[in-house]
Amino acid sequence: MTESRHRLTPRSDPGLLSLVIPTYNEAAVIPHLRARLTSFAAELAGAVELVFVNDGSSDQTLDLLLDWAAADPRVKVIGLARNFGHQAAATAGLDLARGDAVVLIDADLQDPPEVIHQMLARYRDGYDVVYGVRASRLGETRFKRLTAWLFYRFMRAFIHPDLPADAGDFRLISRPCLDALKTMRETHRFLRGMVAWVGFAQTAVRYDRRAREHGETKYPLRKMLRFAATAAVSFSPAPLRVSLALGFAVAFLGFAVAGYAFLRYVAGYPYVSGWTTLVVLLCLIGGAILISIGVLGEYVGRIYEEIKGRPLYLISTTANLDRDAGDHGDCAS
Ligand code: UDP
Ligand code: MG
Question: Which of 48, 50, 141, 234 gives the lowest tally of CB atoms within 10 Å of its CB?
Fold first, then answer.
């Protein structure tokens, strides 16, 4: 992210800061979160609202959030009608947050709220997006660290050169940038890529990502793979080009073998290709064709879902949201 393209105009602290917190089965965390965020809010100069999105939890999360909202009007609760996934839940919170600056943060306290002070300092410098870069990841398995490392490197190399490395969704977004982001209503959402795409003056703060102290990760391998596929496929046709390249490579191999056979024939050596060669070539060609169809299918499937134009999330309960949630074209009741 080049910082020089933007002229920074220093500004004061946001009059209202929104924290957007997607929560899915986080009942074990909520009491700790409540203590941490209450003391964090007391340290802030301006007003704050905590926008919780309950992403169809099947435990006590919603009850705990509603209790908290009843005790504290700064706590807003958006209850989704079912589990829509982290990116959709975050979108719901971003849509309904009203702050002059919004911070997207996980419920599990892996991203320490105290880092927001550093983010606010950069906001005052004039930056529109301040994303948290994980200097270290504590308490995560070696496998998760390795796959995350590979993911960011691969994405930056082939799909998304602007995507900041090792930055999750923990970030501060200014109101003008958020309004731009809200115009992007695609179904398959890779928020951190979308934030990079909108541009604006962006910068990083480094922090140590803590271990999850309560509850467990809601991103099993299956969800991580889907997330990586969305990140790759929803942002660029590069995977299609890979299958094209694969096609060329296999065709080239075929020509090379044919050329070799021809030369042997001309030179007077009979060329009798063996069973192994045939089977290997058959597998290569068959594999290349199926992979290409698979990649194509991934795009076609996504086009199909996109074209249905369904709402990104549905809201079934709210608390303390004094603005009509229906503003955004999504159903509220
Ligand atoms: N989350 C969500 N919906 C989901 C999965 C996760 O709202 O379907 C929330 C979860 O409650 C947490 C955040 O997204 O606040 C990040 O999830 P998690 O901590 O499990 O991911 P990890 O940090 O392990 O990548
Ligand atoms: Mg986490």
Answer: 141
